[in-house]
């Protein structure tokens, strides 16, 4: 396995088959409305087939399905896919068959030091989090880290008094779903933060989720509860220049980030937490070890490669690409809804951004849509009759006259969402 | 991104950088006692450094560390690394920057259909599990699947009567550690299976772990408890021809497998479960969704590639390689210990194997060593004085005069273990 050089050239050896296979699959045309992957069905027999975006079909995804349902439910960050297609050469990675087969890295950890260094560098470059004096752990996206944090911060001494898990409405539904699903002795979901503000039960410990910018409404948030019995988990999944101005670096005790909303690689299931308290860090490490025994080594390798691309030119290119996409989508949707009396959007202010050094227009990941008419009590159903699937307000602890619409999906999905919303608004004038 | 062909040749485009980087790193020599990886420290500045096996040091790992500690604790399956080095070309995979960024596959699942098909094909080829009429889910190694199974099989109705989790001594320590760590309302660890055999509490449900072949002692096992209040989880991590004769396909209600002990890719954190009952399957799906939201797409892609290599020539090559390695190690260790009065090994029988169609010598993954002398009550400490770190028998629910020694590690680790054991046996004769 030694490379041979002929007159300055490079003779490719064992990577050739894999490279050829990848380039062949990438060259399959799916009309811009789908994609063939190395593990698409049919790849086993040498013929991967196109996987079409919603509302497109046919062997090359060229056929539009007129009355299809638009999925604006998922926060699937496909708006960044074009950036990675453009940076094909620098973002590809070859995983050799023998790559890091061991359970552990050779410092006995489950974490790549090289990747940890790049994450610290990224936060320093963007200025969105202070990593000084923080421990770092990796997890399977924010998903796993959120429950690891809840488990680690909760009371283990007194089974009669589980920690109360709270969040401000409207809140990301997974906080409630996860806490209820795992049915632990140590914690229980206890509803809306504001209910407890002047009313804290002296026997209980509280764990408050703070989501900034908030999912679904994009507002920057601070913790509500105070005092020695309160711990906070700062979910900063969207605290990146695509989605929000960065007023100053976050400097909290426990902060959770995810690659899903940074580079768009939701399928990679990679996130990290920055933790000030050593005992909490140790408990989260134990959680990771017994839950999944760490994040796959191929994922850590790939994320490292992606972050190297992000860090080129100090992150300007990806964040500008992301911000432009989000700002344009918000502008277009706002414009259509500005003449509506039936639907309204959340108010978002222009703000200074310490990263881009400009006064910035809003660029949220989601529209938090309200049905204003008295009779439109169930906004989800109103949109559904027009073949738009949003996410029901009630899941966020809010009224059913709210719906979250995702703005981070593929261009196809967004274009169709915009078109359907426009039709709805035009109809209301008649 | 269309490939251009010149006179039958293939012009490489966007995969070139990644391929060159991978081949360069692979060509770094670490004297056969270590390895440089793409994400080794120093890779960021273009100079990855060798990561040395235990007991070797220096920039090229050429220097032996005479009094170092031999780690025979971890079941790190590095004995298969040479197989993958030999199959470099067929097992490498290129992950493009845009590979499967979405949260879900386009059938809305978290699971690659192509990979699922290959896993079914593998079980049919090896004949170690009946997959007919079984649902399949993926998880982060057996680790995540074991707890998902416990959660899904446990009682959710009556918090005063959590399901009792039991296992036969000696048992894999994670069963107890995980069950106790997650402190659920629905289940609790209740010790050794045999304690309950004729003594089942009529108000409780039981979940019995059945490990076959058993970790640590390599014995094939059957469920002990019977009746309508008993559910079983069959941990078949080691039920592959490397480690055991395969008498017949396993045909159980809930079976857990992992790639760690099949191909040796423990760092990939990939496993699967085969599940008969649909309701249990649905609960396990929900667990996966809320725990980690599925297994990384790059891991699924890589595992697919690895299984394609395994399936070449119907799996003969890898399983023969694995069996030869394990059988030789067992033979060597047995020979050394055959003259010892101080140490003994578990008895393992020659058996017919339906896969290899021969009457086979034992080839277990672990030695279950017993210190026979009255005064050697703590066998772990006895070995530790000779710089051998095993895993303490007490962790497996057994007496402290037992220790598990791993036989699946790298050749360096095994050679040193053998040498140290030989020294111990020679000393005892004096």
From TrEMBL, chains A, B:
Residues 14-68 form the Alliinase EGF-like domain. GO terms for molecular function: carbon-sulfur lyase activity; transaminase activity. Its cofactor is pyridoxal 5'-phosphate. The keyword Transferase applies. GO terms for biological process: amino acid metabolic process. InterPro entries: Alliinase_C, Alliinase_N_sf, EGF_alliinase, Ethylene_sulfur-biosynth, PyrdxlP-dep_Trfase, PyrdxlP-dep_Trfase_major, PyrdxlP-dep_Trfase_small. CDD domains: AAT_like (cd00609). Keywords: Aminotransferase, Pyridoxal phosphate, Transferase. Coiled coil: none annotated. The keyword Isomerase does not apply. Pfam families: Alliinase_C (PF04864), EGF_alliinase (PF04863). Gene3D superfamilies: Aspartate Aminotransferase, domain 1 (3.90.1150.10), EGF-like, alliinase (2.10.25.30), Type I PLP-dependent aspartate aminotransferase-like (Major domain) (3.40.640.10). It comes from the Eukaryota. Residues 70-424 form the Alliinase C-terminal domain. Homodimer. Belongs to the alliinase family. This is Tryptophan aminotransferase-related protein 4. It comes from Populus deltoides.
């Amino acid at each position: 396995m030694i490379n041979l050089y002929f007159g300055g050239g490079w003779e490719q050896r064992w990577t050739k088959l894999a490279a050829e296979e990848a380039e062949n699959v990438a060259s399959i045309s799916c009309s811009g409305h789908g994609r063939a992957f190395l593990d698409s069905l049919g790849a086993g027999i040498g013929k991967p087939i196109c996987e079409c975006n919603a509302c497109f079909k046919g062997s090359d995804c060229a056929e539009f399905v007129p009355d299809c349902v638009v999925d604006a439910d998922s926060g699937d960050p496909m708006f960044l896919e074009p950036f990675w297609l453009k940076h094909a050469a620098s973002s590809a990675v070859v995983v050799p068959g023998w790559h890091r087969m061991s359970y552990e890295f050779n410092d006995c950890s489950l974490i790549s030091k090289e990747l940890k260094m790049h994450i610290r560098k990224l936060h320093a470059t963007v200025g969105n989090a202070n990593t000084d004096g923080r421990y770092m752990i990796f997890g399977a996206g924010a998903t796993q880290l959120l429950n690891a944090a809840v488990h680690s911060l909760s009371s283990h001494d007194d089974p009669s008094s589980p920690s109360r898990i709270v969040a401000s409405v409207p809140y990301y539904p997974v906080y409630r779903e996860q806490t209820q699903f795992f049915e632990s002795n140590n914690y229980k979901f206890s509803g809306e933060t504001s209910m407890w503000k002047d009313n804290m039960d002296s026997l209980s410990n509280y764990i408050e989720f703070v989501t900034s910018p908030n999912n679904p409404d994009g507002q920057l948030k601070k913790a509500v509860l105070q005092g020695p019995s309160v711990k906070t988990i700062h979910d900063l999944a969207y605290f990146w220049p695509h989605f929000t101005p960065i007023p100053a670096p976050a400097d909290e005790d426990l902060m959770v980030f995810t690659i899903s909303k940074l580079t768009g690689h939701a399928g990679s299931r990679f996130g990290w937490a920055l933790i000030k308290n050593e005992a909490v860090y140790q408990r989260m490490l134990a959680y990771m070890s017994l839950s999944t025994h760490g994040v796959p080594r191929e994922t850590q390798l790939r994320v490292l490669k992606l972050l190297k691309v992000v860090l080129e030119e100090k992150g300007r290119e990806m964040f500008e690409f992301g911000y432009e996409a989000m700002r344009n989508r918000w502008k277009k949707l706002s414009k259509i809804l500005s003449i509506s009396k039936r639907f309204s959007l959340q108010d978002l202010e222009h703000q200074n951004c310490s990263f881009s050094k400009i006064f910035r227009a809003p660029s949220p990941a989601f529209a938090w849509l309200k049905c204003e008419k008295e009779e439109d009590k169930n906004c989800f159903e109103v949109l559904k009759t027009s073949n738009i699937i949003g996410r029901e307000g009630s899941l966020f602890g809010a009224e059913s006259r709210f719906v979250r619409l995702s703005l981070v999906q593929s261009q196809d999905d967004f274009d169709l969402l915009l078109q359907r919303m426009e039709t709805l608004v035009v109809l209301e004038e008649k």
